[in-house]
Amino acid sequence: MLEFMHHLRDYPWAFILPGIGAALSAIFLDYVMKEGAGHGVPEVIYAVSRYGGLLRLRSSISRLISSCLTIGSGGSAGPEAPVVMSGAAIGSNIAKLFKLNDRQRVTLVGCGAAGAIASIFNAPIAGLVFVLEVVLGSWSTVNIVPVAIAAVAGTEVSRFFNGNQIAFSHGGFDIGVADTVAAAGLGLATALFSILLTRALRSMHHVSDGVKLPKWGRAAIGGCLVGLLGLVFPDVQGEGYHAIREMIVGAYSGAFQLAAIAIFAKILATSLTLGWGGSGGIFAPSLVVGSFTGLAFYRGVTFLWPSIPLVGEGCFALLGMAGLIAGILQAPLTAIFLIVQITGGYEVILPLIVVSAVSTTICHYFESASFYMKDLVDRGQLLRPGTDARVLNDLSLGELIEKDCLVVTPQMTLREFVGVVKRSTRNHFPVEDSENRAFLGMVDLNKVRPYLFDTIMYDAVVVEQIMDRNVKFISYGDELTTVLNTMDTEGLFSMPLVVNRRFVGMISKATLLDKYRKELMVQTTDNP
Asked: Where in the cell is it found (predicted)?
């Protein structure tokens, strides 16, 4: 689509094309598919974390079409994340068709995502590592084997239709010690621009949210601004792979200043596209920003210290791509294997490791979570396998309820209450209204124990006088993480579950922790 519209760029009004494409993308997602704009991958991670990988079937095509409209008209975004969501949605709905359980569905979601990444980049190892490191967050054998098979299958299907081609071919690089050392400096630079891109995207989201226009109107504004920017810097439009190919083979003719300015221009274009409502991913923009960063870094170093024997600007453009991916995703293994496979640059593995490690470490220091996960972490919606939040999320209140509590009424005398205590094995007794059975409070045996040994009080005291009305209780819908935190804060060992003012049962810390231990064993073993 981008090639089809390329000849229109020579017209004075061509700057509105990205705006039209972004607006149509927003209209398609909001009014036709009933889905909000997004990057795709965070939605997949959210589904894996909270809903056992449950994704709607229409998600398999919605982001593909919307990203084509955005990118094809000149918006600065990538097609990879929408393809990942498409593959993940297909895997999720296959699991639904065969009535598989949540853990099996999550594995198939990973298989779909891995097949998508592997096919679009012709990189099976990168697809496998990306899914395990970013999407699933788990390296268990039960995930590795099927995800690896799916990545290989996706690659083979892609090769059948497109041939066995690498995305960015180049000549060989003779890597020296100076290049590996310089890679550490490049890692610092790529970390800086990873943080800048992350925060620019987030800032643009906040700015656009403050504009009182429908989503398609905001997307149109962002797209038109990208079109205006593209009149000066044509390389910022679309996914930008053509610029990467030029830089890797050393054919980019722009001076150092132009390469440096192009970094900021691409970041701005991507922020305007995605931050204002366009659809697409950040893989391709990150690769472009990274390659410009590597190119500018090389030219700056060789200008300042011309005697340093560096291998060439094409190699540093390649290393810059790894640094940006590692930094913005905080996924160094994904960056290393992706760049190795899409460029065939196995000889640069040592500086790749250096630049990826440095970039990831610095970015993690300034950004607690990657671009994909930041919003999920802030909302408490990122639940990784084996973590407290994930284990507690997989437990339900229904399986924790203890219903062997004996109920008392406020009019009951202390003598009658003692009779109930003799028949009970618990220390807590819910108090209910004798007429409508509404929950009124609790009697804690430990707090009324002195009364029990004073027989003179047996007929003089009623339950209403010794009950606690200010009882913290649990409702359906409360998250177990919150429940456990409340117990710890208040020094409680059990809490009543109350629904519609009716006592249902008790939730005790002992039962909760016992179920927690069993669920943790399930999640940390390789048995499906």
From this structure: Membrane
